[in-house]
Amino acid sequence: xxxxxxxxxxxxxxxxxxxxxxxxxxxxxxxxxxxxxxxxxxxxxxxxxxxxxxxxxxxxxxxxxxxxxxxxxxxxxxxxxxxxxxxxxxxxxxxxxxxxxxxxxxxxxxxxxxxxxxxxxxxxxxxxxxxxxxxxxxxxxxxxxxxxxxx
Length: 151
Hints:
- The chain has five helices and no strands.
- It has helices at 2-31, 38-64, 66-74, 81-109, 113-134.
- It has 151 residues and is an all-alpha fold.
- The radius of gyration is 17 Å and the shape is elongated.
- Helices cover 77% and strands 0% of the residues.
- Helix 4 packs antiparallel against helix 5.
């Protein structure tokens, strides 16, 4: 299971970079009135795919996590790692990936390039904000984990 934790930790940075890339491309498209191209489709699909892969790895970890299992056995609402990972992290990250997926679906159906970029920008900024809150950064007051995990 430790390899899944390391994979989850590494994927965190790929998710953040891909989302930032889509936000930048959307901002650029809005600012400079660019056309929505194949590059934008690939970047959006990649960010969505990497995010969904991260979610699957996270669900697997959640299922086998002693921290989450302990929380559900005791149902203790005292603040700590159990409450953070069982409810806050799980719920917010799931919501963020749903927002990314819905944004991607709306962009696929939209025909106007300006609206496509607006949808991408709004949905991905919202998802990024939620993700940044829910990551257990080393400096987070909610729960802390190291910057990188090694095998």
